[in-house]
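FIELD: query
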Amino acid sequence: MQEKVYWLGWQVLLSGMAKRIWSLVERFGSARAAWLASERDLVEIGGFSREAAVSISQRRARVDLGEELKRLENGKIDYVLYDEPAYPEMLRGIFDPPPGLFVKGTLPPADALAVAIVGSRRPTPYGLAVAEKMAGELARAGVVVVSGMARGIDSSAHVGALSAGGPTVAVLGCGVDVVYPRENQRLMEKIMAGGAVLSEFAPGSPPEAWHFPVRNRIISGLCKATLVVEAGERSGALITADCALEQGRDVLAVPGNIGSPLSKGPNRLIKQGARLVEGVEDILEEIGVSSLFKAGAGKAPLLHQLTKEEKTVFQLLSHEPAHLDELVARSRLPVQEILACLMFLEIKGLARQLPGKFYVLRTLL
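FIELD: result
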């Protein structure tokens, strides 16, 4: 069997445990070698306790990789591995990316510009309206809207993007063949028709409580920025914001009534330095595309005229000077290709070179 099938096997066996899977493959040299390892090797090389090694060995024996492939095919589920072209570029760059993604629908282009919108499951009518409005305007500006398809703010974000005719991506805390919450059946179908639902949890995985903090790093990891609309002091949306900060991504927040418990989360983020958002222009400016996207225009013609490599470099630029070496490291492109992209971005008026081989967005100067 191909190596990809063994990666699939580990994600079925250790669903949601990306760090452990990466460690295993690194220790054994390949997913296949780890899958075929004996109980003794799982202890001595894999680092498992003897009891854990016995449990894994027993559960592994019950996994039929051929049947798992058929299950994906019958469910029309794609399995996109980390090193495949369709795997989202932004997600690939986080500390602990999922080895693979289970996907229903169609993923946006790997280099698509995306913003996450998250918030309370029990929002106010104001919060719902803001989330839908922001998502719709982002979608019309050519930005992919990402959320978690939960009740409340998440659902409104997806609805707003779909209403504007834009793609949206839902990251689930369960298998992509599991509808949660149940009332979102039709919404899920609409998302898949114009975008995608995805998960690192194997098909059939239930929506267990520990899954959601784990999946939140994927929501932020797919995006250049995360917008928090309404959130209480213990909201999962704040976990997503923390993930975004750890990943070096922008965090934004919509201010709220100081008397509302649902304003405590975003207002605290603003006090800690998050960008205060009053309109979609604030979001677009923060992610560095304010002069490219006009709210309500319905498209982003200039960005679409860039090559794939130029988009990659462009999305790494901001108002903070970035050194050439940093751009090379983050983009994983050859230095000569980076220099060529930067030259063309300068010609197109999108970037500016500063002394010392530093570069910034011209749009924010």
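FIELD: remark
The chain has three domains: 1-73, 104-286, 306-364.
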